[in-house]
User: What shape does this take?
Amino acid sequence: MNILAIETSCDETAAAVSQDGRKILSDVVYSQADMHALYGGVVPEIASRKHIEKISLVADQALAQSGLKRREIDAVAATCAPGLIGALLVGANFAKACAQALGKPFIPVHHIRGHIAANYVAFPQLEPPFVALVASGGHTILADVEDYTKIELLGTTRDDAAGEAFDKIARTLGLPYPGGAAMDRLARQGDPEVYPLPMAKLSGSPLDFSFSGLKTAAVNLIHNAGQKGREIQTQHLAAAVCRAVAQAVVPKAMEAARQRGRRVMAAAGGVAANSVLRAMLERECKKQGVALYLPPLSLCGDNGSMIACQAYYEYLAGNVAGLEQNCYATMPVSERV
Assistant: This one.
């Protein structure tokens, strides 16, 4: 089954073609990062307008690279939740129009399920059940993946996601957008002991997260140093922030696996590219005998491959929709779009 998939949930305009889910025939991504870097973060209106400009070109390139003709596409998919609502609508409406024109089914896909599916693309041997950690710019969640389309939310952030904390701290330091990647590069040269940072403890919700306190503490530290004429050693602060995020995330991921009796864990999302987090996950999973799947860096960010892959399993589960399908800015990963 050949699926053309569209991803426009944030600031990447992406399209890919999959064959029976895991075989990716093409994957094209147009990134707006350089444009949003001028503003220190994603501007939703600009993102939506850029998607409109590029979506047709990106889809045509994906189809051309796949080597397939339009008549050989069996279904069209698009991310419909969660994400920036204007950006989502561009991709979903384009995909619905393609499906209508081709006379093929339209498959709505959940963005977080797509991130999890990036591991299916990278690792043909991976199958549910397993515990998934998804950490990105707007999401930090733990989920129990019982089946490809049966996913239970175990824990989520109460406020800021880890990626949001990275980006806001990086912006305060004057680092380029996207801040998470810049912080990671700096952290490799730093000492995390130089700047002690707090870690939130949430009573009654052992698998939930909170990163607003970490963000506020780091931003206040930077501002206070500036007011006193002191220079912040950015590499040390970056190392401290990366370690604080990893220390907040990894123990809870291991606890989720223990609670569910899972011996397999998969990580996904842009923050899953962080070298400190990856190293700590690898160390703890090895120590506790849990098989760990970490997608390559190219599949951690938003891309069309992950949506094309998950769309196949959504189709098998009967999750197709008509032209009335809407988009949603927020939606739990456990819900069908």
Remarks:
- The first helix runs from residue 33 to 37.
- The longest strand covers residues 23-31.
- The chain has a mean pLDDT of 95.
